[in-house]
Amino acid sequence: MSGLITRRGLLAGISALGAGAALSACGAKTGSDTSKAAGAKADTSGDTVGVGLLNSLSGTMAISEVTVHNALLLAVKEINAAGGVLGKQLKPVSQDGASDWPTFAEKAQALITDSKVVATFGCWTSASRKAVKPVFERNKSLLFYPVQYEGLEQSPYIFYSGATTNQQIVPALDYLKKQGLTKLYLVGSDYVFPRTANKIIKTYAKANGMEVLGEDYAPLGSTEFATIVNKVRSAGADAVFNTLNGDSNVAFFKEYKSAGLTAKKLPVLSVSIAEEEVKSIGTQYLEGQLTAWNYYQTTPGAANEKFVAAYQAAYGKDKPTSDPMEAAYISVHLWKAMVEKAGSFDVEKVKAASDGITFDAPEGKVTVDGATQHVHKTARIGKVTANGLIEEVWNSGGPIKPDPYLKGYDWAADL
Question: Which of 66, 353, 400, 403 is the most exposed place for a label (fewest CB within 10 A)?
């Protein structure tokens, strides 16, 4: 798929890296009447309640986000079939963020103010999350964010069901170090997640006897990687740490193979390529390459077998499942459990009820940490196989407590 990232959207995402004021401006510039937005209330008066689904259904991120949207719809369907939430059926209200961060903010405001949803599920890139964060905070409305991210954030109105840094990036670095792959080249998309992740990676490397031999960024949606791949090939690295997002990965891995680079010669560890992206990029370009996630379609267990079967029954037997899809799917079920424990759709009561909520998820048992509004998750390293699936080669042995600010790591003190 292809799509356009506007200069305005890209700059908004990049500015989110270090400018809280810019974030507020980005969130406020939605085209909605923000003077009355803070008073917007969810509508729970009828037999149905609206739940917002906010994903890129078009643009460069659609390669990843359409399937997340599908997983959210599956969870809503399952919950409705089981009787709904507090006796009410869920009505999904979808909005297209269109891979543009100001658009995400505008659509978030519309879900809250116009559709009066009780909660919203979605976003993928950290730039989109940063853009909508002030919108949800200003309106005191809940967002459930389903994708791994760079950490160093907590919001009273966001629940993070994907991995934070110590549940994905840090275990990935530990794995590379144990494999003797200590000379890294960093390749990422030019926005907040890759730049912040790479700042953490460089800090880790300095404290753990690793070297970063190069660092390059490409605009989201970029298809030109000849120069970057040539730099990677000549750097003398042991491995590439890849934080590219969206369909730029297609062009990068095709150029990588064209340059004669393989998983055996110079492995790439990716943190944003899951089964759906493998299928889109092509197994012939990815076989043997590494990924870091918390869930794979091949993860064993009855809960995952049920999830895979349900998803493929709804969307096609050839459709793979992936970590962001699973994290999105469980986020709706976790919200349901919070609401039922609270006995109310009221946001503050739901938040107060969140701590200790558990769910028998496809990835294994997950537990909500109410203090951070993140989820305990098991870290997993996988390898892309010839059939397009990802087989686990290492896991953390159990769920890792979320530590979004890396307070438990001495090397991260200055971050």
Answer: 66
